[in-house]
Amino acid sequence: MMTPQTLVRARNLNVKFVSRDATVHAVNGVDFDLAEREVLCILGESGSGKSVTLRAIMGLNPRAKTVMSGELKLCGEDVIAASEARMSALRGRQASMIFQEPMTALDPVFTIGRQIAETIVRHEGVSYKAAMARALELLELVQIPSAKRRLEAYPHELSGGLRQRAMIAIALSCRPKLLLADEPTTALDATVQIQILLLLRRLQQELGMGVIFVTHDLGVAGEIADRIAVMYAGRFVEEGPVRDVMRAPLHPYAQGLLGATVHAGLRGKRLTTIPGAPPDLRDLPTRCAFAPRCPMVENACRSAVPELRGPEPGRAARCIHVAQAAQAA
Amino acid sequence: MLQLPTMPDRGGPAQPLLIVKDLKKHFPLKGGLFGAGGKVQAVDGIDFEIRKGETLGIVGESGCGKSTASRLIMSLIEPTDGEIIFDGEKVGTSALPLKEYRRQVQMVFQDSYASLNPRLPIEESIAFGPMVHGLNRSRAIPRAHDLLTAVGLAPAQFAHRYPHELSGGQRQRVNIARALALRPRMLILDEPVSALDKSVEAQVLNMLQDLKAQFELTYLFISHDLNVVQHVADRVLVMYLGRVAEVGPVDSIFDAPRHPYTQALLASRPSMDPDQRRTEPPITGDPPNPVNPPSGCRFRTRCKIAEDVCASATPPLAEVAPMHQAACHANVTASGHSLAPREAA
After folding, report:
1. Residues linked to residue B96 through DSSP beta bridges, in sequence order
2. pLDDT at B192
3. What is the pTM of this model?
């Protein structure tokens, strides 16, 4: 019971979306483990496969069109083989998810209190009254002022920041071991974003949750992550501890992303850019997917997809220019 | 490529290109649960100038009125009160009719897809404005191709495409090319890079800097991203709930902000250093609803140094450093705020 459990284990995870016109290779061989109490940020641009990876863990990709292969385990359960009924039992209990846009994630015709209580009754089988009492505690936990009054509020009556807090309260209602967060602060104003980030960090520590946090913003990742995985064209191209990835990224794409992120001290200088655009995932390249945009490209980059290479324990990048440390005996 | 003449500089270099005086826009609230009579004070009395050749950045959170201000300046909506003076002439008078003014001021919007006609190839979209202003199609189309080249899109490859065949970054380049088609002197850029990925954002920002020099432009750059504004702007104007909180040179604002709101906004940025993470949010709560703004200083409900005077009197924009003004009672001599400078004896 006390030994650290692996919350998520992915090995060669592939997610394809198949339709009559085309097959989109959204996730192409992702490997990772998430330990208890660990915060992993998946960093990537639109279309990199970061949200699809997150939804795969919850079994939220549309079943009829999605083909998954490889291994994906949530708290030891095989997500790829699990039935919809089994997934429904896992959701909320083992893992829950928060989204970018709380207005569309919350139901507009029910009060906040009722939406939270409903989740608790459904998963824990307690009375509605007990669930409502717990809903009040949860609103206080996420620091919603005048929580008692807010139980009776409808989503449209709340500001963006309070709505996001209410969604977090619903996600935490069954004390999940894993919280999946899909750009939860992107739609918020700067002064509200930092409040929500700090709240999530505090809750993660107090409740001892594992968190996978998807973002496109390096600064947000720096505030919350233990480890960062950089995603490009459906693959993890770099993974490592937050300090190392933010200070000295190994992969040319991660380096480009850091250079292209506008921050103080660049005034009047030209920003480093990454030329071109990401590949079309309907026609997945059989070489390094970043090669056409890479300043360090060589012929060898065009022959095969580079393996993950680790210069030191805990760090890895899919680039032939990264030194492979000798395997420690 | 000069087939539409550039508009002449009338007032000389000392004349600000744009002067905004006491601009107001109140949107009436009709009916609703609480009856008629309410109004949203989206922009409530703002004054500022934009000098020739500079980039003025406007920052603020949602609902602060920055987009309403840009639409007022573009004359897309009628102001409730106030006036706009372009190069010494009042906009909408016989000296500067609206059609002439709009040739000189063009706008780029955040949503690159919604701002292009989905049924027109992009060369037609770019040529449309010049044709309205009397240029022949046979001259407007080659001109559109020149502009596509200027924004880094090869005409042979892109001119005949429709908006849905382009990526977000490419569409935003088309919008910029279209804005330049009338040879304007000023561009209003309303969150032009907010919807773009980081690597594309950097490409577009670099291009905007190049175009500014190439076409001798003046920019009004609106953004919620402080890092982007710090990178592009010469001067910065901070808005809060329809009013100006602080305005000044970019270095002065970012190095020594004097309004508590600007200070909080700057302190809300992620630190970019995992060893120096933020520990306390600089301010709590969300911006209040502009339908019913607080009396006096509008920021007082979230301000750490608010006192009685802040509720009773509206703070004036007062000089706090060279060219740098802030609307906070704590900076106004003898305002009654305990942190205010004392009156000289």
Report:
1. B93
2. 93
3. 0.89
